[in-house]
UniProtKB/TrEMBL annotation:
Name of this protein: Vacuolar protein sorting-associated protein 26
UniProt biased composition (Basic and acidic residues): 140-155
Highest taxon above the source species: Eukaryota
Similarity-based family: Belongs to the VPS26 family.
GO biological process entries: intracellular protein transport
InterPro entries: Arrestin-like_C, Vps26-related
Region (Disordered): 93-155
């Protein structure tokens, strides 16, 4: 048995009466070579930073769309192919708020009329929370419980 995993892009552009469609294979991975064990799961991690991708866009002004798909192909010993395709949604991760001497740094993606005097989005709170002054940091093991119900601090 042999397994392949592909990342596909499908874009569509409408110009008057014409529709242009482009399908592209962005990445191919071999995920399995050999007979699988029943119930076996194969974790897959795909790092997307190395690819020139845009966020998923659906029917922008009924003229343009970009969709992404994961495609799984399994081939058995007799070269029979089994397919499964799943649409995925990609989006851009928002910028993290950093607390510095000047407060927030405005994002270039936020329109200026939505930015407060401090530089962050209007009506937003700081994403960084300071702990209350009277709380001491706990050791990571203090709040944990073992499978047998005992606590590491009981030893």
């Amino acid at each position: 048995m042999h397994g392949l995993f592909n990342l596909l892009s499908a874009s569509k552009e409408v110009s008057g009466p014409n529709t242009f469609t482009e399908n592209e294979t962005i990445a191919k991975y071999e995920i399995m070579d050999g007979a699988p064990v029943r119930g076996e799961s194969i974790p897959i991690r795909v790092f997307l930073a190395g690819y020139d991708l845009t966020p998923t866009m659906r029917d922008i002004n009924k003229k343009f769309s970009v969709k992404y798909f994961l495609n799984l192909v399994l081939m058995d010993e007799e070269d029979r192919r089994y397919f499964k395709q799943q649409e995925i949604t990609l989006w851009r991760k928002g910028e993290k708020a950093h607390k510095g001497a000047g407060g927030h740094t405005p994002s270039p993606h936020v329109p200026s009329h939505l930015v407060s005097a401090e530089g962050g989005p209007q009506g937003s709170e700081s994403m960084i929370r300071d702990p209350p002054p009277d709380s001491a940091p706990k050791a990571p093991v203090e709040d944990m419980t073992r499978e047998d119900g005992t606590s590491p601090k009981e030893e």
